[in-house]
Design a protein that fits this description.
Structural class: alpha/beta
Number of strands: 10
Bound molecules: adenosine-5'-triphosphate, magnesium ion
Order of helices and strands: EEEHEEHEHHHEHEHEEHH
Strand content: 25-35%
CATH architecture of one domain: 3-Layer(aba) Sandwich
CATH topology of one domain: Rossmann fold
Number of helices: 9
Strand order of the largest sheet: 6-7-8-3-9-10
CATH class of one domain: Alpha Beta
Shape: globular
Distance between the termini: 32 Å
Largest sheet: 6 strands, mixed
CATH superfamily of one domain: P-loop containing nucleotide triphosphate hydrolases
Low-confidence stretches: none
Length: 241
């Protein structure tokens, strides 16, 4: 079953068409990657899916139900969570507090929220930082917190917007493993990432967008050897390894 389906999605900002008749679908249990140049419309597409923006045109279906215009909070309650490219934790609060904000999507009991948050921190090998102030975290830790916060909402579908940007190679490898583990636990993943090594290792399938339009779709190997993708994004020096 397709957990997510987008049909002819359009998002205009005034005269700028940021997403242009984009259609795609994700099967339950799949990891779908999305790549494309800066400004291609990737985050905007995510924002239309996650309810931050209502699409200008087109439809978004989640678990078979049309979700155009449904607010992020309600989507989150129904199992659609996302991370933000620009992380914005409550910097003066602890890691645990920040993750509990996510847990409160599925419970209104503080003790339950705390237990769920602690469980998420354990899954992400992050319990040792539970009492640290978010404002003191490194970039890699902030990204992990962003994943934790989203995971605490107990999603069926998780959208990751560049959770590996700014990480060192070893930290990228760790995040790839974390995301694979989440999928193995039954969460479907849609991931935007510029780090090719990571997106190639992670994705079952990749869609490539350019000026808001899909220009290629296929296995990592297929898109990496696609002439249009090389021209628009990867550059001639990119060699499939
Ligand atoms: N809120 C907004 N108002 C006006 N224009 C916007 C807004 N958000 C995005 N845009 C524009 O829409 C286009 C697509 O932006 P978007 O952030 O979706 O790109 P992206 O593919 O995520 O890029 P990057 O890889 O740099 O994150 C860009 O031209 C951007 O300037
Ligand atoms: Mg973006």
């Amino acid at each position: 079953m397709n957990i997510l389906e987008i049909n002819n999605l359009v998002k205009d900002f005034g005269g700028l068409r940021a997403v242009d008749t984009l259609s795609l679908s994700i099967e339950e249990g799949e990891i779908l990657g999305m790549i494309g140049p800066n400004g291609a419309g990737k985050s905007t597409a995510f924002n239309c899916i996650a309810g931050v923006y209502a699409p200008t045109k087109g439809d978004v279906y989640f678990t078979g139900k049309k979700i155009n215009g449904v607010r992020p909070w309600n989507l989150c309650k129904n199992g659609l969570a996302r991370t933000f490219q620009i992380v914005k934790p409550f910097r003066s609060k602890s890691v645990l507090y920040n993750v509990m904000v996510g847990s409160f999507v599925t419970t209104d009991k503080t003790a339950v929220a705390e237990e769920k948050a602690l469980n998420v921190l354990k899954i992400l090998s992050f319990e040792n930082k539970k009492d640290e102030r978010a404002g003191n975290l490194t970039i890699a830790e902030l990204k992990r917190l962003e994943v934790a916060r989203a995971l605490a909402t107990e999603p069926k579908l998780l959208l990751f917007d560049e959770v590996m940007a700014g990480l060192r190679p070893a930290e990228v490898d760790e995040m790839v493993q974390i995301i694979k583990n989440l999928r193995d636990q039954g969460i479907t993943i849609f991931v935007i990432e510029h780090i090719m090594r990571a997106i190639m290792a992670l994705s079952d399938r990749i869609v490539v967008i350019h000026f808001g339009k899909k220009i290629a779709e296929g296995s990592p190997q297929e898109v990496a050897s696609d002439e249009n993708v090389i021209k628009a994004y990867l550059g001639d020096e990119y060699v499939v390894s």
